[in-house]
Every structure is written in C-alpha cells, then in structure tokens.
C-alpha cells in the first residue's frame, strides 16, 4: 500500500543512512540508522506510522 506521506525511501548499509523523500518533495537523510529499522519500515503496512514511531526524533538528520 502506498504511503500518503512518504513517496520514497532507501538505505545505504555501509554508511548507515536512511534517505526519505516525502510527498511534499522534501528529502531527509537520517544518520546512523540500524539496518533493522530500515527493514522494519520496508515491511510495515504503514510507512508513515512506522516512521513517526521509530525514526522521527530518534536519529540525527540532514535536509537534502
């Protein structure tokens, strides 16, 4: 099911970075994200809810 908030996300395991692009067009790069967090988001039926519960406010980030 597509997310109404997140349009795209990807993970770089070597750099431990999660890149999230929102439907607004804004992209953020989250730092030092464990791979299991990315895999949980990938498997979640609601990407937005998972993001808010497990990522938002928990990792350093940079707007791209």
Provide key terms for this protein.
27% helix, globular, alpha+beta, 4-stranded antiparallel β-sheet, 64 residues
Short recap of the structure:
This protein is α+β, with helices and mostly antiparallel strands and 64 residues long. The protein contains two helices and four strands, in the order E-E-E-H-H-E. It has one domain.
Strand order of the largest sheet: 1-2-3-4
Quaternary class? single chain
Strand-pairing-aware structural class: alpha+beta
Shape: globular
Topology pattern, helix = H, strand = E: EEEHHE
Question: How many DSSP E strands?
Answer: 4
As a whole number of angstroms, the C-alpha radius of gyration is: 11 Å
Head-to-tail CA distance between termini: 26 Å
* Biggest beta sheet summary: 4 strands, antiparallel
Number of helices: 2
* Total domain count: 1
Uncertain regions spanning at least 5 consecutive residues: none
């Amino acid at each position: 099911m597509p997310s109404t908030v997140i349009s795209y996300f990807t993970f770089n395991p070597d750099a431990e970075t999660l890149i999230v692009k929102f439907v607004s067009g804004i992209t953020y790069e989250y730092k030092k994200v464990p791979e299991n967090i990315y895999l949980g988001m990938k498997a979640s039926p609601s990407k937005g809810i998972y993001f808010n519960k497990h990522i938002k406010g928990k990792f350093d980030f940079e707007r791209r």
